[in-house]
Amino acid sequence: MATYKTLSSKLNWANGLPEASTTMIVAGGLEADGSVMIPHLVNSVFERQGQVILLSFRHPFNHYLHIMRKMGVNASKHKLQFVNGLVETDLSSLPPATRPHFTLSADWQEFYSWLNAQPPSLLIIDGLCSLLDLGHDVKTVMSFFTACQQIVGDWSVRAGGGYAGLVANMLLDEFTELLAKSLIRRSHYFFNFEDLESGASTDVSGQLTAIPGHLHCQIQNSGNKFKPALLHYKVADTTVQFFSPGQSSTIL
Amino acid sequence: MSSFRRNTAGQQTTKPPPATRLNPHSAQLLVSTGVPSLDDVLGGGLPVGGILLIEEDRQTDYSSTLLSYFASQAIAAGHELCIVDADQEVALKDQLPGWASTAHEMQAKSGLNDKSSAGSTPDEPMKIAWRYQNMPRIDSDRDDYDGKSSKDSSTLADARETPFCERFDLSLRIQPKVIEDATIEIVTGASLLRASNEDHGGDMYKCVLDRIARLVDDRFSSLKPAAPGANRNILRIEIRSLGSGFWQGSDSLSILKFLHRLRGILRYSYAVCVVSFPAHLYEDGGVRMPVVRRVEHLCDAVIQLESFEGTFATPSDIVARQSMPAAAAAASDYHGFLHIRKLPRLNSLTASMGRLSLLHSGGGSTNNLAFRLRRKKFSIETYHLPIEGGVTERRVPAKDEAKGNRQQVGAGVGCGSTPGRSDPLEF
C-alpha cells in the first residue's frame, strides 16, 4: 500500500489517517469513482489494530473482499464488519466469509442500536446517495448521516477506544448536488474524484481535489495542518498511485 | 512424476453454466452479448449479475439490433430469456437473427473447410501484409481472443460443446421451431398493464420487478445451492425502452427505485440484464435531466449509440440527406459513434477492458469507436477518417483521359512549341 503514501504526505496525515472522530466526504463521478479511497482507509485502520464497519448500498461483501485481497489486505485477519444496504432479502445462506454481519432494513433504529453496541470503529458508508434513489429526500438522508455521526462521536468519548471516524462515499451529479453541499457543511474533509480536466489519458485515471469541510476549523490538533491539494492518480488492479500533476511515473 | 497427489475426492466439482467464461482478472463469470466486438469493448463479455444500459439513438433504431443479438445469443447458448417491452408486442420470429455456425460445423465434419479448399485461410502465410500475420483477429468465427481467454478459464469442456459467442447473420432469421423449444418469457404492453393494474396499483416498475424477482428466486438464485446432478443455467433479461412514455410508475423516481432493486436482485443471482433507455426523452430544452445521470450510475456498464443520421437531425434532414449521393456514400462506411460512458467494474477497481480489449490496444483511441450495420452483421470498429474525397470518385484521371487532355492543351498556344505539334518540353 505504499502508493497511498503520497496522498497521506500531501494531506499531512500521520499513519495515513486524519485525526480521530473526523468526518470525510468522498465524491466521485461516472468513470472516476471515489471508492479507490476505501482500501487505503481500511488498511490504515488495520495497521493501527482498529476496526472497520463498512455499510454498502452498492455492492455485496464479496466485491470488497476481492479488491482488498488483490491489494494485499487480508480482511479475514482483522475486524471488518459488513452491513448490507443493497438488498433486504435473507443472506444467511451465504458462506460465513462473505455473509454480512447486519442487514439494513426500513427501520433504521435497529441499525442505530446495533451500531451503538459496536466498539469504536471507522464507519464507511459506500453509496450514501442511493438513499435518494430509494425515494428518501435530502432531509431524511441528512438525518441518517447525522445519527451515524453522533454515534461515531460517542465512540470517541468512550475510554480506551480505538480509532473512530466516519467516511461517506457518494456519486456527485446534478441530482445529488444538494445532498453533497449539505454533507460538506457537516464534514471535516471533502475529497472530489473527477475526470482529468485536461482530457482523457491512458496514464492518468483522474484527478483528486482535497479541500477542508466546514467543520475543519473545529479540529483541535493544529500540529498536523491539512493542506488543500490537487493530485492526479492512476488506478491499477493491485495499486492506486497518487502523484502531483505532471509527475506520473510512466511519463517521467 | 511426483508421487504426491492432491486429494480431491471430497471436493464438489460444479460445472459452470453453458456459454460462459471466467474473467481471469476479477474472477467474474461472463456471458456474450452476441456481438464479439461489443464483448471486446466490455472487457470480454457481460458480467453475470450486472446491468448493461444502452442509450438509444434519437431517430433510428440501432439499439434494437443489439437487443436482438442478445436474445439470439440466449437461444443459441441455451440460456433462459425474459423480454420486457411496455411499448409493443414482441414478434421474435421476425426480429431475431439466425446463426450460421451449423453450416460451418457440417463443413468442418465433411472436411470441406480444409486449407486446400479455402481460398485464403487465416493460417496461410501472408505475402503482402505479412506484418499483420501474427495479429489477433476479432471474429466470432475464428475468435483468437475467445480462445485465449477460454484457456485461462475453467470452461474448456463447455467451450467445446457451446461456443461462448455464436456467429449470427442478420440476413437469416431464426427458425420458429428453435424459438418454440427455447424457454422464453415475454412480458409486453397489454398483459403488463393488466397485471400492474390488478396487483401493483398501476405501477409497472413494481410489477416487472416482482416478476423478475420470482423468476430469479425460482431457478437462478446464487443463494440457493444447485440441485444435485443439475447444472446451473443463465437467465438473460432484456428490457426494451425502459422509462418510455408507456411505462407507468407511482412517482417520478420509480425508475431509480426499480434499477436499484434490480441491481440488488441480480448481484445474488445467475442472471444478466440488458436495458435500452431512450435518454433523448429525458431532455429539457436540449439539456439532459439529472435523472439520466442517476440512471447511468445505477447500471454497471453504459454505452450510447449516436447515429449519424438521427442525432442532431430532424426527419426532413434525414430524407434530404438520403437523396444526396455523396452524403449517402460517406455514411455507408460507418453508421454512427459508439460512446462508452461506463465500463463494468464488478469485483475490481478497474475495468478489465484496458488490458483485454483488442479495439483499444492502440492506446489513446478510447472513445473513437464507431459502429456499422452491414447486410449480415453489426460490428464495432475503431473510427478512422475516410480517404479524402472518398473512394467512389476517381481523383487521378485515367491514362487515356490524361492523354486526351494533353492533346487538347497542345492544340492551343503553348510555351515554346509549334501549334498542333507535341513537344517533349511542353508543360
TrEMBL record, chain A:
Q: In which pathway does it act?
A: tRNA modification; 5-methoxycarbonylmethyl-2-thiouridine-tRNA biosynthesis
Q: Cellular component GO terms, alphabetically? A: elongator holoenzyme complex
GO biological process assignments: tRNA wobble uridine modification
Q: So where does this one cross the membrane?
A: none
Return the InterPro entries for the record. Answer: ELP6, P-loop_NTPase
Which Pfam families does its entry note? Answer: ELP6
Q: Family per UniProt?
A: Belongs to the ELP6 family.
Annotated PANTHER family: ELONGATOR COMPLEX PROTEIN 6
**By what name is this protein known?**
Elongator subunit elp6
Automatic annotation (TrEMBL), chain B:
Q: Name one GO cellular component term.
A: elongator holoenzyme complex
Its taxonomic placement starts with:
Eukaryota, Fungi, Fungi incertae sedis, Zoopagomycota, Kickxellomycotina
Q: Where in the cell is it found?
A: Cytoplasm; Nucleus
UniProt protein name: Elongator complex protein 4
Q: Where is this region: Disordered?
A: 1-23, 105-124, 137-158, 399-427
> Where is the signal peptide, in residue numbers?
none
Keywords assigned by UniProt, alphabetized? Cytoplasm, Nucleus, tRNA processing
Q: Which GO terms describe its biological process?
A: tRNA wobble uridine modification
Which InterPro entries does the entry link to? Answer: Elongator_complex_protein_4, P-loop_NTPase
In the UniProt record, what gene is named as encoding this protein? ELP4
